[in-house]
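Key result, reporting period 2: structure in, sequence out.
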């Protein structure tokens, strides 16, 4: 039923609507629903949560969003880095810009978070990583490298923040 609605909506702006386009839209909707459910579940346990959807590579925007959250809730003591994009292509079909784009969302995002929150007493840090970061994937070399970076970033937080619960969720 929902896919039919998506198909009708896409037909208004596209000459040809493919199953891939419908599935991409449907996946975005289901991910948004899941994010909202998880945030609500955390809030129901008495925790203040702010979901920030922005380009984490843009230091100024990310910094402004975090400062807004701090005005609303106080100092940030927990962070979840879940940004990422996947452009699966074999390396001989991948442009340098595409590689950089995939890598930078996770890596630059993590570095920006670290710089912005350097004076905060972080108690919890979670990074959404991928099994590709551990074992690699021929069509996802950039994604694998980015996730491997996140895994090491999480390890580095243990040295920087005494007693932090820092985890890389490999899914």
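The corresponding designed sequence is given below.
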């Amino acid at each position: 039923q929902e896919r039919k609605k998506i198909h009708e909506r896409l037909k208004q702006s596209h000459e040809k609507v493919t199953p891939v386009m419908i599935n991409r839209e449907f996946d975005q909707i289901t991910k948004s629903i899941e994010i909202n459910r998880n945030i609500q579940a955390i809030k129901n346990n008495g925790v203040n949560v702010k979901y920030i959807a922005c380009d984490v590579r843009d230091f100024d925007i990310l910094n402004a969003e975090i400062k807004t959250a701090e005005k609303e809730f106080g100092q940030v003591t927990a962070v979840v880095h879940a940004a990422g994009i996947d452009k699966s292509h074999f390396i001989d079909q991948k442009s340098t810009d595409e590689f950089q784009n995939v890598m930078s969302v996770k890596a630059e995002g993590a570095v920006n978070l670290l710089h912005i929150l350097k004076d905060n007493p972080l108690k919890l840090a979670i990074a959404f990583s991928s099994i590709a970061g551990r074992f690699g994937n021929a069509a996802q070399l950039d994604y694998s490298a980015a996730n491997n970076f996140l895994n090491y970033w999480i390890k580095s937080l243990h040295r920087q923040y005494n007693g932090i619960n820092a985890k890389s969720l490999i899914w």
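The chain has a mean pLDDT of 87. Residues 19-44 form the longest helix (26 residues). This case is discussed further under Risks and Mitigation.
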